[in-house]
Amino acid sequence: MWVCLCEQINDEALADSYAQGLKTVKQLKQAKHLGSTCGKCIRLAKQKLDQLDSSFIQVNLLT
């Protein structure tokens, strides 16, 4: 699924960026230019980052 169509960032690329340490919308804006064209993706990107945070926390609790 596309998160930011303007900058060609899909949810897989967002997950890869998260794994590389880009864990906030601000960091994604700086590094990947997320939301720099129209900004419609910011809300969806925040939701996806929250989901990744939740998944990360659950995995850490299980190990």
From TrEMBL:
It holds the Pfam family Fer2_BFD. Keywords: 2Fe-2S, Electron transport, Iron, Iron-sulfur, Metal-binding, Transport. It comes from the Bacteria. Transmembrane segments: none annotated. Its cofactor is [2Fe-2S] cluster. Residues 3-48 form the BFD-like [2Fe-2S]-binding domain. Belongs to the Bfd family. This is Bacterioferritin-associated ferredoxin. It comes from Agarivorans aestuarii.
